[in-house]
Structure to design on (316 residues):
């Protein structure tokens, strides 16, 4: 019996097919979000529009390769002897991994840059960018190994690169969520009670999306450790890039909803023009321990970050 027979054919094909079906559903949601984004934010910076178009296009390529992989596995010569896939992986499989990694890396770079803008710190983003560079490099190296040596060689001797890359990707998501939440909590202390609701909503969205992507990446790594010859991990990995892209477009499209909190932002923006409002602010300030000057400073910065041309608040 050949070495490739140690792979679990049924589990591998089932994991890949289920992952492709779920990722196609996520791609539909992603396309809908992109459809709403471009007409809703016509004044966004050109760089942001190009990045959004690039992320969507990479996701489209990933779905095209995924659909072709299903064709190759079910209809092509692999149908008669599916274990041949584990001797020399179809190019569609390697293409899916590469495209998914690039798409997720672009999204992570975007979110890390939000940390830099909002915290005004460079050392944390620099560490994250180095980690992202490592994940991209490891995926490129593993793709070369898979093309030249086959999946068996990768699984037996090189899968540690994938495992480390997935865990470090999860670490980046956790770091981004932590420092964004930490910065928001620090600013929250100087806000009035009504304004904290908006900040709490952003913190909740930041934690939710960051935890989701890190959990999926961790799950894929654990499956690769515990079941390296079933390739179920690949099905989970295919969905990971779609989740990253959806969190990216969700952060962009949420700006209008956050900007809709005009009853909070506007009440403080024009507070200095009304003696009655000033009296109310003084009373609320004495209750909360925050000053109108600190409130106005944060809200002015908050308004800039919610501006269409500078979406500084990250939601993942």
């Amino acid at each position: 019996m050949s070495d490739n027979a140690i792979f679990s054919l049924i589990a591998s094909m089932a994991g890949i097919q289920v992952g492709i079906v779920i990722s196609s559903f996520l791609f539909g949601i992603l396309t809908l979000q992109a459809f709403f984004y471009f007409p809703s934010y016509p004044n966004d910076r050109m760089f942001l529009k190009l990045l959004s178009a690039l992320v969507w296009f990479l996701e489209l390529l990933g779905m095209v390769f995924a659909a072709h992989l299903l064709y190759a596995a079910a209809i092509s010569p692999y149908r008669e002897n599916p274990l041949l896939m584990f001797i020399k992986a179809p190019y569609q499989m390697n293409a899916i991994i590469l495209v998914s990694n690039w798409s997720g890396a672009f999204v992570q770079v975007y979110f890390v840059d939000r940390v830099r803008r909002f915290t005004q710190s460079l050392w944390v983003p620099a560490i994250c960018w180095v980690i992202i560079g490592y994940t991209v490099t490891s995926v490129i190296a593993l793709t070369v190994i898979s093309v030249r040596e086959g999946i068996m060689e990768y699984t037996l001797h090189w899968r540690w690169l994938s495992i480390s890359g997935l865990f470090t990707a999860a670490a980046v998501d956790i770091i981004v969520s932590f420092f964004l939440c930490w910065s928001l909590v620090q600013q929250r202390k100087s806000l009035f009670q009504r304004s904290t609701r908006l900040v709490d909503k952003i913190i909740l969205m930041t934690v939710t999306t960051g935890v989701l992507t890190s959990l999926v990446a961790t799950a894929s790594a654990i499956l690769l450790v515990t079941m390296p010859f079933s390739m179920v991990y690949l099905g989970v990995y295919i969905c990971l890039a779609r989740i990253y892209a959806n969190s990216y477009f969700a952060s962009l499209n949420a700006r209008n909803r956050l900007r809709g909190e005009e009853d909070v932002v506007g009440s403080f923006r024009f507070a200095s023009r009304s003696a009655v409002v000033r009296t109310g602010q003084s009373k609320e300030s004495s209750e909360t321990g925050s000053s109108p000057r600190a409130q106005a400073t944060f809200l002015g910065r908050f308004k800039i970050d919610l501006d269409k041309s500078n979406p500084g608040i990250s939601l993942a």
Summary: Residues 3-260 form a domain with the Rhopdopsin 7-helix transmembrane proteins fold (CATH 1.20.1070). The mean pLDDT is 76. The radius of gyration is 23 Å. The longest helix spans residues 151-188.
